[in-house]
Fold this sequence. Notes:
This protein has 157 residues and is an alpha+beta fold. The chain has helices at residues 32-42, 61-72, 79-87, 104-109, 130-141, 145-151, and strands spanning 17-21, 27-29, 45-50, 56-60, 90-93, 99-101, 115-120, 125-129. The strands form 2 sheets. Strands 1-7-8-4-3-5 form a 6-stranded antiparallel β-sheet. The protein has a two-stranded antiparallel sheet with strand order 2-6. The protein is globular, with a radius of gyration of 16 Å.
Amino acid sequence: MKLPPSVTQESKMFSGVSTLSLDDKGRLTVPARHRDALMSLCAGRLVLTLAPDGCLLLYPEPNWLPVRDQMMQLTGSRVAIARVVLGYAEEVEMDKAGRVSVSRTLRDKAAFDKDVSLVGMGKKFELWDAAKWDAQTAATMAIPADDLASQMEGISL
């Protein structure tokens, strides 16, 4: 199967930002450039959960399993993170039209309006309310050059 340029053959890494609209039933349509890779990787079986920073995380099921296992090992004050990530985890399946249903609970917790941004983050996607994503992007772009240099130390773009 030929994978789209936004996904590498060796590791099936997801990248890119897509602005999508939720339909009246709370479904989003996965961009075509990711559908074949998701079908190949996990037959469209995904896990959607809440992240502590307020976005949703969308994992292909095989990429979710190690994260789930790590969360289950957390102890002490870090259990609170596991409660959020594991507690809100929902198994979802991409339908034949490439749509994924986002539950009312997760839409409310992430404060989604109609428009959302799907952000490829390697082995998973982040799903943000589009206005929050735009604000976060603007804040990142406004980081002073000296601060940015220290934050980017050891990273070459």
